[in-house]
Amino acid sequence: MIPRLLLAAFLVCAVLPAAQNAPNPLDQAEVSIRVRDGRWVDREVTRFAAAYGGDLVAMRSELARVLYRSRSFDGIDLGRPSVIAWRKGRSPLIVVIPISDRGKFLDSFGVVDAGEPPLVRVGERDGTVIYRQNQPGGEWEYRLLVAANTAFLTRSVEECRQLATSVGSLVAEPFGAPVEATLRGSGLLNPHIPGTDWMSALPALPIDLAEINKVPGLLPQAWQDLSSQVAAITLTAQSGAQGDLRLTARLTAKPETPLAGWIPTQRPSAERLAGQLRSPATALLISGRLSFQGQFERWAFEQADTLRTAAAARWNETADGAFRGLCTLLERCGAWSLSVERSGPGLLQLWAVEHPRAVEVVQYVATIVGVLQGVEPDTARVLDRDATSLAVPGGTSILVAGDRHAVRLDDRGAKRALAAAGEAVKRLETTGGLDAEPALVSLWMDLALAWNAPIPAEQERADPVIVRAALRPAGAASLEFIADLPIARLGVLLGRLNKILRND
Prior knowledge:
Elements: H1 2-20, E1 31-35, H2 38-52, H3 56-68, E2 82-86, E3 93-98, H4 102-108, E4 120-125, E5 128-135, E6 138-147, E7 150-154, H5 157-167, E8 179-183, H6 196-201, H7 218-227, E9 230-239, E10 245-253, H8 258-262, H9 273-277, E11 282-288, H10 295-302, H11 304-311, H12 317-330, E12 336-343, E13 346-354, H13 358-373, E14 378-382, E15 385-392, E16 395-401, E17 405-412, H14 417-428, E18 441-446, H15 447-450, E19 466-473, E20 478-485, H16 487-503
Helix pairs in contact: 2-3, 2-16, 10-12, 12-13
């Protein structure tokens, strides 16, 4: 009897750890979206719809598509957490969704993003519901298992059972953000994030990247170089102060990378540039101060061949020397800013960099802009200072050095480049107010001005919709970017823009 009991005990001990350590398909996820509180999501979309003046049913349906891959919230238990995720390979979607009504959920589930092949329910087998999706490389198959009032979707029956064993019924996390997305691995470079079609439908921000657009591949290469040093990026949405929607992006560096070594050297500071340059016409203002520790100069030198290719025969020894000289100077720059103002029918975009050798910075920038844009610099006067004028596509660029700042003013249709550059130099000589809280980078934006909300027939200007954000260190190897959006005001503004577009 005793040997049999010992044998039984041995078998139990052998089997239980195997069940507890079953492979979890979610460990392979490179993009995941966790909804901890679906009721919070429902409340926020209801609040936004009331301000927007739109169809609440349609908006709830869109959120159900993005967060649950469903046509509606029918059959979903919004009071329990859920996860949708993507990994590499065939049939990449993984789903864990709590349900309250199996039939209603199955009738609703299977919605995909615009442009994707439909997810088609074709039958049931082995205790699972079968879905198929046609792809250019062949048909993908998914299996959906319902267990413990939870729907588990993966690429096979075995994985559904592994997922159910590993995850079980997700437990409520009252102190976590209501919505959280995580990107890692190749998900950082080409993330499959549902709902990005919403972003493309929004009006564009009035930022002109100028010469950067003349160098194809520069920004993608910069992000590829940076993302190779990133362990993960986490995005969260939750309620902020005064009824705002708080969005947070947290970047965590991989250990023993240059990025992991750079982050601890950064010191948030309060800068005066924002107070000096902000005006009633300001639509957007970004300012900050970073300590590059040699990283910028090293990376920029590696991009020289990319610039030579973009400029072709125009790139010569003078341009190469100017580029290298500028990189060396910017490595040791002080505070910097980028601001955009609405001026009559046009835009004024202002770049300012605090530097003791501002005259040299301006000279180098003028040379590089002329080469990349294919235009000849011309001399000009701003106040009592020598300046450079360039007739670039879309307007005029003025480059001038103040007492402590290098200034570039891009006039895009405002037709007052020299006067605006002079005003900027004067403002930079004033004291200016400090930002409320120290940060590495601060952002202030009025979306009503940024999107150039037109004045409708009733001649009432759109109310300001102010977005504030800041980038700060968050621990030894992380950076955190926090933005507060006035969701109700944003809904009113977007509703107004939509109404005007429909009337047009």
